Structure formats: C-alpha cells, structure tokens
C-alpha cells in the first residue's frame, strides 16, 4: 500500500461562508479551525496547507453558553509594569467583534508558522455584508 502526501500545488482551496448568528463560539471555532487546516479533505496532510478559505458573517451576534457573557474576560498587557487590563466578552463583542472569533480559532490551531499562514485565510465580518462574492463561497451549516 502506498501513502500519498499532499503538495501545496495539488490543492485548490474552496471558499465557505459561515453565518455566526446565534451559534455557540466554541462549536463555531472548532468547525472553522478544521476547515482552515483542511481536515475535511481525504488528502489531509498535517505539514502542508491543504485548508480552505472561510468567510464568517454576523460575528457580532455570536453566542456563548451560561454566564460567560459577563464572566469570560480577556487579559491584555502593554508591556509596562502594572499596565494589564481586562475586557469582558460582552464589551469586546461590541467593540471588536472580529477579535472574539479570531482569538477562539487561533487558540485551536497549532502554534507554528504554518498555522499563522492558515489564519490568513480567515475573513471575519461583524455584519451580514462581505466582499467575497466573486469567489462564490458555499454556505456551510454549522
């Protein structure tokens, strides 16, 4: 039996569009991370970028379960002593809705150069409008 390894030249990425309205953040991030890595393809190879491009719309209306709306917080550090600050999920969803989804997906990717390249194929929009109509993305039900 012969093992086939994918090459970057052999893979043509598909475009998917994911509607985040009312979806749980964790389940959504797992699905997006698997699409970006290419784990849905039979020719998946961990050390080759065989992933697809993902467009996320309605990022402002993503949901979380339980009391995470008020209790989940994100910590930022400026580099100076005592200058760390925190923002709750609710505040960040209003200020930077892209960050919430990008941060969750980034945490589910491997920590290497290949994952950073794969994350560049993630496009997050706070509302229902996006500018990738020319790529003809397929709506994916999550």
Account of the protein in words:
The N and C termini lie far apart (35 Å). The protein has helices spanning 25-37, 68-71, 89-95, 97-107, 113-119, and strands at 15-19, 53-57, 73-77, 84-88, 122-124, 138-140. The chain is built from five helices and six strands; from the N terminus they run E-H-E-H-E-E-H-H-H-E-E. The longest helix has 13 residues, at 25-37. The model has no long low-confidence stretch (mean pLDDT 95). It has a single domain, classed as Ribosomal Protein L13p, Chain: A. The protein is α/β, with parallel strands linked by helices and 142 residues long. Helix 1 crosses helix 4 (97-107) and helix 3 crosses helix 4 (97-107). It has a four-stranded parallel beta sheet, with helices on one face. Strands 3-4 form a two-stranded antiparallel ribbon.
Record the SSE blueprint.
Blueprint: E1 15-19, H1 25-37, E2 53-57, H2 68-71, E3 73-77, E4 84-88, H3 89-95, H4 97-107, H5 113-119, E5 122-124, E6 138-140
Parallel strand pairs: 1-2, 1-6, 2-5
Antiparallel strand pairs: 3-4
Helix pairs in contact: 1-4, 3-4
């Amino acid at each position: 039996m012969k093992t086939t390894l994918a090459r970057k030249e052999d893979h043509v990425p598909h475009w998917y569009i994911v509607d985040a309205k009312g979806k749980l953040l964790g389940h959504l991030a797992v699905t997006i991370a698997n699409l970006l890595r290419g784990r849905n393809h039979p020719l998946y190879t961990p050390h080759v970028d065989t992933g697809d491009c993902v467009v996320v719309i309605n990022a402002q209306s993503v949901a979380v379960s339980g009391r995470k709306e008020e209790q989940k917080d994100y910590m930022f550090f400026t580099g100076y002593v005592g200058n760390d600050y925190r923002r709750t999920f609710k505040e960040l969803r209003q200020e930077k809705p892209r960050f919430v989804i990008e941060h969750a997906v980034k945490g589910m990717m491997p920590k290497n150069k290949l994952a950073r390249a794969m994350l560049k194929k993630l496009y997050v929009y706070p509302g229902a409008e996006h500018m990738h109509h020319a790529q003809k993305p397929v709506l994916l039900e999550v």
